[in-house]
Fold these 2 entries.
Entry 1:
Amino acid sequence: MGIRVAVAGASGYAGGELLRLIAGHPEFDLVAATAHRQAGAPVTAVHPQLVGLDLTFAATDPATLADADLVFLALPHGESAALAAELPESVRVVDLGADHRLRDADAWSRYYGGPHAGAWTYGLPELPGQRAAIAGATRVANTGCYAVAITLALAPLIAAGAVAPADVVVVAASGTSGAGRAAKAHLLGSEVMGDLSPYKVGAHQHVPEIKQATGATGLSLTPVLAPMPRGILATVTAVPTGDADPRAVLADAYADAPFVHLLPEGAWPHTAATAGANSCHLQATVDVDSGRVIVVSAIDNLGKGAAGQAVQNANLMLGLPETTGLPLFGVAP
Ligand SMILES: NC(=O)C1=CN([C@@H]2O[C@H](COP(=O)(O)OP(=O)(O)OC[C@H]3O[C@@H](n4cnc5c(N)ncnc54)[C@H](OP(=O)(O)O)[C@@H]3O)[C@@H](O)[C@H]2O)C=CC1
Ligand SMILES: CC(=O)N[C@@H](CCC(=O)OP(=O)(O)O)C(=O)O
């Protein structure tokens, strides 16, 4: 028997991707996959890509999950905190939801509402010092999907003093799976296909998370819903404070990061190149006209943006190499 893992919210998009990654992980044994309305259904009735996985969704209750060494929570916002509080401290937990990401209770109530559950160790291993913090934690808050893409592009530049933290502008497009699988009016196929539309303009819940993770003090984020199932492409622009080469700063920051790739000069990120992988592709330049630094970042929102990142964090918490069981390469086209 390997390491016993369980997934709560396994019938969702992030949960389904977790099941796929766990099935290919050499050290993990899946002991439970839970759902809410779909409890009792065969996993493959919901996730046809997992045919061969002979399992039925259990109901989401703490007793079922407490039998695992590590539990992934892939539940709607606000549902993780109460469930996690019922799990013994000996069970490691990675929460893919937002409940434990923010240290600032006011920011939590402004963007999410309801009681603030308090912050856990932030699950972005590529931030300075964070690998060791995650390795020593029993509770880890996985990052938001836009937050990963934008933080990886921006954090090293602010940390190096290469750009001004007070003036960061981001436009970022996301595939529709970022919104989860529950039916929503703005996700009707016939209206999403062939369309690009901004949403949560100036009011996205990842803004405080990105500010917390990067040290940005002024950040404008315009998210755009894109007609593709997976992927995030974020274009981050900021004002340089000197003449540091942004490519050199990023290359230095990610020299030892197996999943973050600064592309060769002149090559720009494509979301499709990250699909199915736990990778982030970056490119940077200085815009000759505006003088602003431009960094473009691509991830798979269900990979490095959710399930892949969660498995990377779990590997670190369990003392495994962080790449164990994780796809390094995408499946494009
Ligand atoms: N999709 C993405 O790209 C990303 C998602 N996340 C986060 O991961 C979490 C899951 O997201 P996602 O998979 O997209 O969401 P989905 O809507 O696709 O799935 C939600 C899951 O939670 C279950 N669920 C719904 N309501 C409840 C409830 N009241 N109590 C317990 N379980 C419930 C659902 O079960 P059932 O279907 O049986 O009702 C389903 O398994 C969210 O917190 C999300 O923000 C984070 C980063 C990226
Ligand atoms: C396309 C789309 O709607 N995306 C979602 C991404 C949410 C997400 O996955 O991140 P959290 O875990 O922080 O909710 C959004 O913009 O709210």
Note: The CA atoms of residues 38 and 57 lie 7 Å apart.
Entry 2:
Amino acid sequence: MTGDERCRLYLITPAVLEPVAFADRLQAALDGGDVACLQLRLKDVDDDAFRRAIERLMPIAHAHDVPFLVNDRPDLAAEFGCDGAHVGQQDTPYAEARRLLGPDAIVGVTCHDSRHLAMEAADAGADYVAFGAFFHTETKPPRFWATTELIEAWSQVTTVPCVAIGGIKPDNLGPIVQAGADFICVVTGVWDHPDGPGGGVAAYNRAIAAALAG
Ligand SMILES: Cc1ncc(COP(=O)(O)OP(=O)(O)O)c(N)n1
Ligand SMILES: Cc1nc(C(=O)O)sc1CCOP(=O)(O)O
């Protein structure tokens, strides 16, 4: 994951899923077009459920050349040789995640609405920083609000890629892309898309391309 390319789609799984049934939906999503990264984000599950999901879903991501990251659990990501992990401000600290995963893994950090947190993460070596939420979302009711001004300011001072997250849909992503976001990160806009997950991925990619063109 580098920030020196065009803006790309970063996909997060639903927080509750049954791995065998979800595998077909993941396959459909990744068949729908370009996805830069897949993050497994499970909530309220035990370690065995996490392990079953990693074992079933990571090969599908890899068959599409999509890096597979695990949210909150760099220990499990390391155990299964995943491509990396995403950690929040209340999770395993960045330095410990990096120690567990090694220098070549992708480690991203939630930075909410804060350029200061983002600088700290980038200086420590994070591969990307994540800003959000941009819009209201039921997926995770926002406590912080990020802005396109933050993305613009970030892009001017550093080359460390930034991810924009929170309520982002094909019809509201234009200003975020034009402000310089490297990745548009999405949960429901893909999984709940009326044309299915593949249609959702295609719709985001069309909207990103239109924003970059226009
Ligand atoms: C790419 C990306 N950005 C932000 C988050 C949110 O992470 P966090 O603050 O740790 O909250 P939970 O996802 O654990 O609810 C993310 N997962 N991914
Ligand atoms: C997991 C997560 N983190 C956020 C943050 O603001 O840090 S918003 C969010 C949920 C994003 O889901 P959707 O694309 O369905 O709005």
Note: The radius of gyration is 16 Å.
